[in-house]
Amino acid sequence: MRARRSLKRRLAAGERLYGALLRLPSETLVEMAGVAGLDYVVIDCEHGPADMTVLQHHLTAAAAQGLDVLVRVGTAEPALALRCLDLGAAGIIHPHIDSAADARRAVAADRYPPLGERGFATYSRAGRFGAVTAVEHLAAAEETLVVAMIETARACAAAPEIVATEGVDAILVGPADLAVDCGFPGKDAIDKLIAATHGVAHDAGRAVMSIVPDTAGARAAEQAGAQLVLYNMAQVLMDAFHTLTAPLAEPAKPDN
């Protein structure tokens, strides 16, 4: 089986990668994302189901299409992160990282010693069920992508320390949670906070992930320097459904 370059290596090479955020369990959507040519999918186990058997099916479907999988876990769930990585996830997205201490705990959950505290196992799916050596498995685990989500004003203020944490590879600012935390100050205020936080990440050499609703949003994210562009598939699909129902709302034309 020929190995492909990891997301981490592709980011380091300056590539811009496109993915789909999936909250609805569907192996078919995973396959379709691969057939369409996307680079990765994000399986959302924070706001979506966290069933390990279903997740394994998604990972298997993704592997068949040469597609990498990132998993968003719930807040402070190192055990879930471990199981996702053992199943073969390429990386973990950790929500609600408010401080450098939070970032260190996220890294500890995802990485093997000495940088982290991940429990070691080679007989998992990630270790090809024992078909690779411990050295090979450790080398592959070095490619794990650690994404810290910044979702509060406190986290934005702590962004320099968060992105400076060894082992953090990328950040994702959650605009919805940030707006709630700030008391809904208005789009301009939130956009300013996000741009400032992205600037901190760029200065530190960390990749930025941006969730977008459509291709116009993707272009804007590209221009702002995002390396990981992530389509919100729930919004994409709902927009598509609304488009399909638009003709139904049009008044019927009279017969001539």
UniProtKB/TrEMBL annotation:
One of its GO terms (molecular function) is lyase activity. The keyword Lipid metabolism does not apply. Residues 26-223 form the HpcH/HpaI aldolase/citrate lyase domain. It comes from the Bacteria. Keywords: Lyase, Metal-binding. The keyword Glycoprotein does not apply. Belongs to the HpcH/HpaI aldolase family. This is HpcH/HpaI aldolase/citrate lyase family protein. The lineage of its organism: Bacteria, Bacillati, Actinomycetota, Actinomycetes, Kitasatosporales.
